[in-house]
């Protein structure tokens, strides 16, 4: 006989009193299993995990309010979902008598129980963070479940559940008084009433079907995948199975994600993925957020109710704070705004509303104030000055910041959350008195620091130092008040309450749906200039060779840098921890001024005679030890290494070159041949020409020789050089980075270069130090990497840092070696020694010296290394911290014994760091090392922000 249950007639459902001992006895007697039981939380049932030699199971002792028919329906629905979707679900286990459902006697009466299989994994909600792909995977699982249950034709006992969102408003009304949080009961009633009223016009158009009813992150089982992220694979607890609105399934899922959503836009991947599997109707789009609010409100009041009637239920009590967080997050923004955000994920953007009415100011010129990321007025870090906006407005009679312009002046450095940079109105700056007039008839009233003109479902908000403010009813054109000088924020809203003026960029378009553009009220002739980062990325893909890859899956549109930070078009700042090209920092005014001055004077090639090329060559030659004294200037590191090889070939009359494996030296034919990094070229080892010889990468962390045996790398290399000589192929050159860059800044073993340089020179070859990445003070203790090894190369190559991003490289050698090139003809590089390039190089050297950046690299690098070593002591995924100064690498491993590279984890961690405002990328052949090579101007505060953020990621997940 079916059990009919009505929550409103039987609301007090305390979980059955059932001990672990009783659970073990029941499983032994009814199912023939000897197991150890531990309590699993439940709101109204008694659940236990049972571990036995035969496997792991879950014993579910039902609340007496529900009977065998309810459990049979749940099992049939679960099996149907598994068949139709491939989602893993618990399967019922027959007892020794062949029955799945077993009667159970309680002290208070009787109930039923069943044993089901245990799904390996953890609840998806176990971690504190869920990445966008995982949020999308959850939406996909919810969609597949909904699609499967839409066709479920099994028996379903009629029930009026409190978890049916069709009952949510009544549930809140029924239970709100159990909320003891000050103001909480009224807040729950108000939120539920507003949601129900919004839902009303669409309710009749919502499809109804069987729903799981509790598809939350706690009821979705996940297993780790290759990148260390939990992938949703299973679904448990069909106890709330009922017929309800189909879209309620997604609303429940979204509500469960809210505590992990600092920005509600993070829910969009789930909504989009659900729609791809099970298309969302227009009515359902309008209903989704009201249902999220109703779910949050009913969950919160139900939790308080359950904790009050079942004080022994630690599960219910333990969820109270989380349920309150869900409620606060669901009601933090207006339903109309959240509906617009949801709609933006699935439907083409609706035309943005524009406010119509008479101009609120008359006469005078109107200047547009550009505070965007690309504004020329914000050069030199001016945007970080708190008074920049007022100062830039200057003496203009009237200047205004456009509607929805993302203001760089509102950025925040080293902030994990995107700042509120986008204005939902126009900010007006006045140097002379202005009369502000009503654009339409309405009623004026004051609210805190603002004046509101209300009429016909719209409100004009004026925030600023207005005086002589009118009151009561006004006609269009009447004076609202007077602005003597200063700024006035002007916005129009279709909401009852006052909207924020500045919001994060991710929420701007949603807010714009209820905050029409007031620009016509200020400047009727204004034109719009909108940014579309996605369209720009599509254009890049269409015209820019895709093998020239970009960082990150969804790259931020970055258009400005300042010192150690970069900024996207939304005004979001990113701490640049990997840009070893910009060694003195981005946007350096001294460098920009020097380049501009020289460009106005002369820029040509080095075969003309001018002072800059002489001075720069002298400066470079003075930075290296004797006998190095002669300079070639080129455009890049590739050209520098290529030229170094040609010098070796010309001076020795040989072709064979010795290089180190797993290194990268360039993309020209010659430098690509000696580059054996498979991260840069997967075919590097197989396609190496016969004249290239390699020795083992001196990797003291994961190579053949470690610890006290590290000296054997040099001995093996020395023996290999002798073997080359015996084979009649003595090396023309040995080329090596003095600090092993591709491994993440790993220093070479002590004496490594001393031994190999001696062997190569005895064989008549030249020794080339590739300083393209490591040179120019990055090590802190040393200006050149070869100094750490106590050697002097025959040829030094350098680039990257030389021009701070300008294409500039150099080869420094002796006069004799340089003269040996004559046999190859003459040498020429169009831009390498140009006046602008030379002035760029000179200025970089001046800034390095005058700002003491090498010492900063030593001090900050040592501080950061200590912080990273502390993280390594607490996070097993960190296998090692390499390097010195600001040439560091954090190597991530899945196992510290096997040293299995955490390659996919490293990529995912870099993506998460980007979300937190840090630019980081993987390096090494295994792509499992965090590449830490920032501008040398970073501070200890920046280093701490990076270390703290990495700690957060490794703690919360990625």
Overview of this structure, please?
This protein is α+β, with helices and mostly antiparallel strands and 958 residues long. The protein has six domains: 5-117, Phosphorylase Kinase, domain 1, CATH 3.30.200.20; 123-346, Aminoglycoside phosphotransferase (APH), C-terminal lobe (Aminoglycoside 3'-phosphotransferase, Chain: A, domain 2), CATH 3.90.1200; 367-522, Glucose Permease (Domain IIA) (Distorted Sandwich), CATH 2.70.70.10; 584-636 and 799-851, Aspartate Aminotransferase, domain 2 (3-Layer(aba) Sandwich), CATH 3.40.640.10; 643-772 and 786-791, Type I PLP-dependent aspartate aminotransferase-like (Major domain) (Aspartate Aminotransferase, domain 2, 3-Layer(aba) Sandwich); 853-956, Aspartate Aminotransferase, domain 1 (Alpha-Beta Complex). An eight-stranded mixed sheet has the order 14-15-17-25-21-20-19-23, with no helix packed on it. α2 (68-85) packs across α3 and α11 packs across α13 (505-512). The model has no long low-confidence stretch (mean pLDDT 94).
Fraction of residues in β-strands: 15-25%
Q: Can you tell me the CATH architecture of the largest domain?
A: Alpha-Beta Complex
Low-pLDDT runs: none
- Overall pLDDT level: 94
What does the overall shape look like? flat
Largest sheet: 8 strands, mixed
- Count of all domains: 6
The percent of residues in helical segments reads 25-40%
